[in-house]
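User: Please predict structures.

Assistant: First:
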Amino acid sequence: MRDRSRPRPGTLWIGRATNRAQWVLAVAGAACMALGITLAVDSAWTSGIAPLAMSVVGCVAAGLLMLYGTLAFVHVAVTLDGEAMEVRCGHIGVPRRRILLDQIADAQFIDRVTPRQWGGWGYRWRPDKGTGVIVRRGEAVVLRLGDGRLFTVTVDDAETAVRIIRERLGGSTPEGLAGPPR
């Protein structure tokens, strides 16, 4: 198994972003699951099995959704090599997106992106903004793909990633780095 702490050969840049506040939501998800398990094991409901089953299933399902939704987006790792930019979310790297450099038309640096602009944390889609991986507020890389779609990822040192992508694309002009995509 490959050591994830070392970059692969040919890696040009690695960026990460973390949101520690989402651990609070993960604890809430674990509490929902614990409540569901407690209801299933130690229940003295006299109103019947159907309400008990619905409560147990509801608590466990809500807990699992909260746990996955938060743990999958507690952090993001972005790797840029000579072929592509790869975005991996959470502890197991899922969801993951790999965008080949020849599919990128332009890259922009945005100094302030907030979850509020995207409707929350996570893997998001907005008609006016495209697709995004938003794990925290702060700087981001915005890619304009060849088909006109946009992809945004919040990551530390995003300006360096944009510079490297632009060099690889052959247009290393620094003007417009801080502006939003047009």
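Second:
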Amino acid sequence: MTGVEEGGFRQEIAGFFDRYVDAFICEDADAIADLWEPVGLFPSPTGNFAMERPAFRDHVVGLLAFYRRQGVVRPVVALMDATALFPDVAQARVAYRMEGADGAVVAQWEHVYILRRSDGWGVSLTIADGEMAAWVAAGAQF
């Protein structure tokens, strides 16, 4: 990739995550689910699983409720790294910071995503080990 292509690629991925966190801020489960491929894969320390979009949307509703119970009022995301793996396939590593009403950090972690571009970028796979560890460390009740 040339520097111009690389910069455009990074801007595309950053734009994707801007839309993603905006949907979380608005608590729009449909918009969040629409930013995922029809079937999302979730490797985790306790086993791997997949969800089709309707089940994932329901999962997001529960996730949003969980965040509210933990006192999260504002998620903040920063793109740390974006790598083109193949044409229309990318890996992104982001840092999340969940803030409470007073702006204090409720929890923070790094997250890895594999994105695929069809009509636009969408999440195909996520590795949420960092998030799970952060909530356990914060004493969250699941």
